[in-house]
Design goal:
Layout (H helix, E strand, L loop, with lengths): L1 H14 L3 H7 L3 E4 L6 E4 L5 E10 L2 E12 L23 E2 L1 E3 L12 E5 L5 E6 L2 E7 L3 E2 L1 H32 L8
Parallel strand pairs: 6-7
Antiparallel strand pairs: 1-3, 1-10, 2-3, 2-5, 3-4, 7-8, 8-9
C-alpha cells in the first residue's frame, strides 16, 4: 500500500515530461505581425526594393521593425528563411512605393513600380505598369539566438532530469524499506 501511495505521488512528476524535452520543444519562430505595417522603397538604381515590416515572435510580445533588400527579377522563394537584415534607416531618401489593398482598385495604376498587399498579410505582389512581376512572401524563420540559448541551457536541463529520475528511484527504494538495510 505504501508503494502505491508513493507511485501516485510521483505520477505528476513523470507525466509532465522532462526538462530537456521542454527546453528543446519550444522553437521560437519569427513571423510578420498581423498587420505587418508593410512599407516598400525602390533603390536609386531601380534594381532592388527595400522591404520594411513589423515582426513578432511566438514566444514574446515584442515587436521589431525589420528591413531587407529584395532584388527585382530574382526567383522568389516558396518558403523564405531569414534574410540578411539591414538597418531600417536605409529607407531614408528612397522612393516609397504605393501599396494597394487589393488588385481591383478604382484608382489609376501608377506607371512606376507599385505593390498589392495580400489579404493574409504575409505576402505582396509587385506590379509595373499594371503588369504583375512577382509575388513575395514575408519571411518566417526560426530564431538562431533561441537555439544558442537552448544549447547553453541543455546541461542544466539534463542535470534537472537526472535529479528527478534519481529522486524517483530513491523514493521508491525508500518506500520498499531498503533504506534500513544500508549499514
Amino acid at each position: 500500500m505504501r508503494r502505491l501511495a508513493w507511485m501516485l505521488a510521483l505520477l505528476p512528476l513523470v507525466l509532465t515530461g522532462c526538462a530537456t524535452s521542454a527546453l528543446w520543444g519550444n522553437r521560437d519562430f519569427r513571423e510578420p505581425r498581423k498587420p505587418p505595417e508593410l512599407a516598400l522603397f525602390q533603390s536609386a538604381d531601380t534594381t532592388r526594393v527595400l522591404v520594411l515590416y513589423d515582426e513578432t515572435s511566438d514566444t514574446s510580445e515584442r515587436i521589431s521593425r525589420r528591413a531587407y533588400w529584395l532584388r527585382l527579377g530574382e526567383k522568389t522563394k516558396r518558403n523564405p528563411h531569414r534574410p540578411f537584415f539591414v538597418p531600417v534607416e536605409q529607407s531614408q531618401g528612397l522612393l516609397p512605393l504605393v501599396i494597394f489593398e487589393s488588385a481591383t482598385t478604382n484608382s489609376p495604376w501608377p506607371t512606376k513600380l507599385c505593390a498589392v498587399a495580400s489579404t493574409n498579410d504575409i505576402a505582396f505582389t509587385l506590379f509595373s505598369e499594371g503588369r504583375s512581376l512577382a509575388t513575395y512572401r514575408l519571411p518566417v524563420y526560426q530564431d538562431s539566438a533561441g537555439r544558442s540559448k537552448r544549447i547553453l541551457l541543455t546541461p542544466l536541463a539534463v542535470a534537472a532530469d537526472a535529479t528527478i529520475v534519481g529522486s524517483c528511484i530513491f523514493l521508491w527504494w525508500w518506500s520498499e524499506g531498503n533504506l534500513n538495510d544500508v549499514h
